[in-house]
Amino acid sequence: MPAPRPIASRRRATILLFASSFFLLSPTLEPQSSRPSETSVLPAPAEIFAAAERAMGSVDALAKIRSISAIAACHGPKADYETRIISDRRGNLSFQQFFSDHKNIAGILNGRGWQLGDDGRYEWIDASETSVLRGHEFQMMAIDLRKRFQDFKTVGNAEFEGQPAIQVSMTDELEHPAGAYFSMSSHLLLGLTVTNARSGGPSLLKIRFDSWELIGGVNVVSHVTILAGSQTWIFDFTSLKLNAASEKAFQIPDGPAKLSE
Predict the structure, then answer these.
(1) Which has the minimum average pLDDT: 2-16, 78-92, 247-261?
(2) Containing domain of residue 161, as a range?
């Protein structure tokens, strides 16, 4: 039976805006993009990804990463808040957001998304809502881009937020179009274009990776800006730790589930 739509408050659903599920190469988002010349030889996606991985760190350093724990001071259109994200290489996620008047507690365990209701009981969430959670895993997304997406194709040279880039199209876990932009100079991931998984808001979003921090021999995303129409969300990561998470971090809090199989 498919997991039911979560029944959490609208304000929580509004804050959990960013979805990794629908990356789109839309003309409205890329008026500055340039098509590759007919005579140019485009690098294969595997070459682009390999260069990005080398820019992040050595093969050994990247392979040693089992988990990433991150805390961000966030600024949104309506409020400032804190986001805490713990990701592991197996796809498990702990997600927490703290506002002045409420909090959001959710996660992904063994491929299945869940969230904590206002009454303290957890409930399963559907694939789209699970993708919304995954959309916040900026650090692990950059490191494991090849595992998160498929159907890669080099599009060509472009500009992303004024920076020269090479553009790759792909599809996500829900088989929706996706795209990524890599720096022509540093080879690091500059950002992604994405489609909002929910109705009622701006349909197109842009995720910009503004800066990186060297931690344990690996360049890790340290500042992210989300652009959605005239609205902006900022994630300024004040704490980034590698391999600091225990298995307990991903467990669902004790309490009866609202909804079962």
Answers:
(1) 2-16
(2) 10-30+42-246
